[in-house]
Inverse folding.
């Protein structure tokens, strides 16, 4: 009887020890969970908030080809799409009239043909400059002070990015109450066409000498904002205050320094002190 009791107790103790060891093992595995994350470095500098202004493209210049006197076209030397230089012959009109190109460019809107009668009231074609595009914008009085003549701003036209230079700022509104603004953008390869939507990015506000992080690094909880800073393969939850933000970048202040590594992806399951494995590190925020 005594031996049976001792044997039973031994079995129970072994079971308890086994269960404890298993729990310790599971707890250890939980504690050693490593989360893969992506990161970027904190930058310091001026944070510029840009306003998107939309407009339409047009040829930088469009020169009508006029005939001095009505008559019949006896010879037509060009067709739509031809490139001409200043002084090239465009057409010959009955009566000995010769029409020359007033400037270099591309022939467009040619409606006349040999043998047709043309008047001196309407152009027979235009010479357009497609190597440079004009961006035509209309802005409110409140937006007008964002523009300065000869200032250059980032612009996109049909996915093509470049710099656009402000060439004209109207002081009087048009019939809609808006103020016309014009800019020019190089189109040397003529990849962009007149009539396309253009977006001009104009600086609207600047936060000077601030810390800048990707907006994706900011986590909000209960009205508080924070980031996870990577240090020695672990993260440190660091409170921050958002000063200004855009879709891709945010200006902040907090207890972190320039070039600190902050988590930009994978932070949903993190907490202060979590172990991480940086699978993709960015050099810029």
């Amino acid at each position: 009887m005594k031996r049976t009791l001792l044997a039973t107790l031994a079995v129970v103790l072994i079971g308890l020890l086994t269960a404890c060891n298993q729990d310790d093992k599971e707890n250890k595995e939980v504690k050693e969970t490593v989360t893969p994350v992506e990161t970027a470095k904190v930058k310091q500098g001026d944070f510029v908030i840009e306003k998107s202004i939309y407009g339409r493209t047009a040829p930088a210049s469009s020169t009508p080809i006029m005939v001095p006197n009505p008559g019949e076209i006896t010879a037509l030397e060009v067709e739509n799409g031809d490139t001409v230089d200043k002084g090239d012959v465009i057409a010959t009109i009955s009566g000995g009239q010769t029409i020359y190109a007033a400037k270099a460019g591309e022939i467009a809107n040619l409606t006349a043909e040999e043998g047709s009668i043309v008047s001196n009231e309407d152009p027979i074609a235009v010479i357009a400059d497609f190597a440079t595009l004009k961006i035509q914008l209309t802005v409110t009085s409140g937006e007008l002070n964002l523009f300065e003549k000869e200032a250059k701003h980032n612009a996109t036209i049909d996915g093509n990015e470049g710099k656009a230079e402000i060439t004209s700022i109207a002081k009087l509104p048009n019939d809609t109450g808006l103020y016309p603004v014009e800019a020019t953008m190089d189109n040397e390869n003529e990849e962009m066409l007149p009539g396309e939507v253009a977006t001009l990015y104009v600086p609207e506000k600047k936060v000077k000498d601030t810390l800048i992080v990707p907006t994706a690094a900011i986590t909000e909880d209960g009205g508080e904002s924070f980031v996870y800073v990577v240090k020695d393969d672990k993260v440190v939850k660091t409170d921050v205050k958002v000063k200004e933000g855009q879709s891709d970048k945010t200006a902040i202040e907090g207890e972190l320094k320039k070039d600190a590594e902050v988590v930009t992806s994978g932070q949903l399951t993190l907490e202060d002190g979590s172990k991480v494995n940086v699978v993709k590190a960015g050099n810029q925020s």
Q: What stands out?
A: The chain has three domains: 34-47+208-281, 50-59+131-206, 64-127. The mean pLDDT is 89.
